[in-house]
Design brief:
287 residues; alpha+beta; three-stranded antiparallel beta sheet; 10 strands; 18% helix; 22% strand; cytoplasm; MVB12A; UMA; Multivesicular body subunit 12A
């Protein structure tokens, strides 16, 4: 039950992104929080002495703009080598202030996108016998005890901004459009035929199919000057009307049918006169 409550509390806590030394509130950066009092009520100034106007305090930041978080914090001796991946904390101190080199505070930072466990908080106590619940002992330095609180942390997922969808996009659909309702079949209006008294026998015998195949403006072109004129053979060529069949056959036998080549040879014109005239040199006019 205690572990579950601890995880629930960690869910809303931002991790530490940096830890540093600061001489006072004036030298502490704006995005840092300075620890001026320990958990048991003592002053958290690491420089102890009579009438000391300045010292150095621990401060931390939770600003995620840098893109890194503190995954671990340790205290090592000046004789120990710094582990791989760790670094000394930054110092924001007055020129006359010095930090004790006997023990150093180091941190390990990792990118916020790959973090699993991070340092969520640090606290100080002046009495080593005092224990802080849900906090881990880091070490003692210059009479103070440093505690840290670790927990899981995941990068917050940015929320997408709602976009206004136009009515045209709402009408779009991947489904196939439904077929339009089928209307009952309607018969096309076939133009009525003219009375037989005004049309020739040829026009009168036209079928309805001829009207359907004509274009919309064929009503004017369909009627010609021969409509209504009776057709009859000239008496000179009517074999039944007179006895000139032999004479007509002899006349027809004298007709010569010419081929295309005969016609081209008979009416061929080479334009030789025009060609010779075009080749003549025009006389020049002296100026």
């Amino acid at each position: 039950m205690t572990d579950r409550m601890s995880l629930m509390e960690h869910a809303n806590v931002l991790p530490l992104t940096a830890v540093a030394w600061s001489s006072n509130f004036g030298s502490c950066p704006k995005n840092f929080t300075l620890i001026s009092i320990t958990e048991d009520g003592a002053a958290a100034n690491f420089t102890r002495g009579f009438a000391m106007k300045s010292g150095y305090y621990l401060c931390f930041s939770k600003d995620l703009k840098g893109g890194v978080v503190v995954s671990d914090i340790q205290i090592i001796s000046d004789k120990d080598s710094i582990p791989h991946g760790y670094s000394y904390i930054t110092e924001y101190l007055d020129p006359k202030t010095t930090v004790s080199k006997k023990k150093r505070v180091i941190v390990r930072t990792i990118p916020v996108a790959s973090v699993e466990m991070a340092v969520l908080d640090i606290k100080l106590t002046a009495k080593s016998k005092m224990l802080l619940q849900h906090y881990t002992y880091v070490g003692d330095i210059n009479g103070y005890v440093l505690w840290c609180r670790k927990g899981p942390f995941s990068t917050p997922v940015p929320k997408a901004k709602p976009r206004s969808v136009s009515l045209e996009l709402c009408g779009l659909s991947l489904d196939e459009p439904s077929a339009p309702p089928r209307l009952p079949l309607q018969h096309r209006n076939v133009p009525a035929t003219q009375p037989q008294s005004r049309l020739s026998h040829r026009r009168h015998t036209l079928q309805v199919r001829d009207f359907l195949e004509t274009s919309g403006d064929s009503s004017v072109q369909a009627i010609t000057a021969l409509d209504g004129v009776p057709f009859s053979l000239h008496p000179d060529f009517d074999l039944q009307a007179n006895d000139t069949a032999l004479q007509l056959n002899s006349q027809l036998g004298n007709i010569r049918i010419k081929t295309v080549k005969d016609i081209e040879n008979e009416y061929n014109y080479t334009f030789a006169v025009e060609e010779s005239a075009a080749k003549r040199i025009r006389p020049s006019v002296s100026t």
